[in-house]
Amino acid sequence: MSLIDSRHSSLATLGAVLVAVFTHIPVTAATPEPRFDTVSRFETTIPTAEGTEDPADIYYPAVSTDGEMRFPLALLLPGALVDKADYSEFASTVASYGFVVVIPNRFRTLTNPISGEKFPGLFAQVEQVNEVLTYMEAEATNPDSPLDGLVDTSLLALLGHSWGGAVGLAAIQNICPPLLCSESFTRPEVLKAGIFYGTTFRDQSQEDVVILPVNNQGIPVGLIAGDRDGVVRGQLDAVVTTYENIQDPPKVLITVLGANHYGITNEDSIRDPVRPTIAQDLSTETIARWSALFLRAHVLQDPEALNYVYNVGDDLDRHVDLEREISAIEAGEGSKL
Which InterPro entries match (predicted)? Predict the structure, then answer.
C-alpha cells in the first residue's frame, strides 16, 4: 500500500471532487480502507517546558520509506485520568490510515475553582501541543530514531477524548484557559485540523454546564459522540451545543449509535454508568476510521476521504448519524448540507 499525498493533486482535481461531494454525486460508494497493514509502536519520553518529561507512546505505519514518504503528525490528547495505553487500538487504526500518532501522559494536580479541592492525576494540557511538536521535529531528523525521515512536522492534526478534546479545542482557538492551560500558548502555524470524541467546550469555572463559543478561525473541526454517553447528565446535548457553537465551517458532528463515553478506549469503563449496546471493538474502529478520514480530508485534502466524510459515509455506515457544514465558498452555493 502507499500513501496518497493529495497536497500534490491539482486544484482542479480537488475542485471537481468538492463539486461532486456537495452536490451529492458519489465519487465512489465504498468505505476507504486503511493504507497500511502493519503499525509499529514505541515508548519514549517528551521534555516539557517545566523541565520534566511526559511518558508517551508513538504509533506509525511500519514501512521503510527512505525519506520518500512522510506522514502527518497526529497528537492524541487523552481524557482525564485515562492512561495512554487505553488508546492503543484507536491509535493503531488511525496510524494505519497514514499518520504518526503520539499519545503523551501528563500528570499534574488541578484545583477545583469552585470548591478549592485538589485533584492529582492525568490531565492533558494545551502546552503539550508545542512540546510534542518540538520533540517530533527533532525525531524527524534523528538517524537513531524510528521516525527518521518518516514524519512530516509541517502537518499537525489534533485528536482528543473528553478533557483532552477540550484542550484541543482551546489550542485550535489559540487560547490558554484556566485548568486547560497553565502559562501561555501560541498556536503553531502547522496545525491544520482537529477531531475529538466525547468533548464539550464548557466554562470550567462554572458549576452549571455553560458551553462557550468555539472560535476555530477557519480550522476544520470534527466532533464525535456516543448516543449513550452518560458521563454527566445531558452530555450528548452539550456535545451538540458545542458543535453548534463552532463558528467556522467546515465542521462535522458524528454520533456513534450505541456507544458511551468510553467508546474510544480499548475497554469500557464504569466511570460512565450507562453501558454501551455496540461492541467495544466496533465502536473503537468506527471512531478511529471517521477520525482518520476527517483528518485525511482536511490535512491531506484526500478526495476519497472528503467524499466519504461529506457525501457517502453516513449511508455506508449504519452505526452513525452525521451532521456536517461546509463553507459557502467550498460548497459553491449554500453553506449547510
Answer: AB_hydrolase_fold, Chlorophyllase-like
Please check whether residue 311 lies inside any domain of the structure.
no
Q: Structurally, how many domains does the chain consist of?
A: 1
User: What pLDDT is attached to residue 333?
Assistant: 37
Q: Answer whether residue 321 is part of any domain.
A: no
Confidence class for position 210, pLDDT limits 50, 70, 90: confident
pLDDT tens string 78-97:
999 999 999 999 999 999 99
Is 291 within a domain? no
Question: Residue 79 is part of which domain span?
Answer: 31-281
* Three-class HEC string of the chain: CCCCCHHHCCHHHHHHHHHHHHCCCCCCCCCCCCCCCCEEEEEEEEECCCCCEEEEEEEEECCCCCCCCCEEEEEEECCCCCCHHHHHHHHHHHHHCCCEEEEECCEEEEECCCCCCEEEEECCCCCHHHHHHHHHHHHCCCCCCCCCCCEEEEEEEEEEECHHHHHHHHHHHCCCCCCCCCCCCCCCCCEEEEEEECCCCECCCCCCCCECCECCCCCCEEEEEECCCCCCCCHHHHHHHHHHCECCCCEEEEEECCCCCCCCCCCCCCCCCCCCCCCHHHHHHHHHHHHHHHHHHHHCCCHHHHHHHHHHHHHHCCCEEEEEECCHHHHCCCCEC
Residue 187 lies in a domain: yes
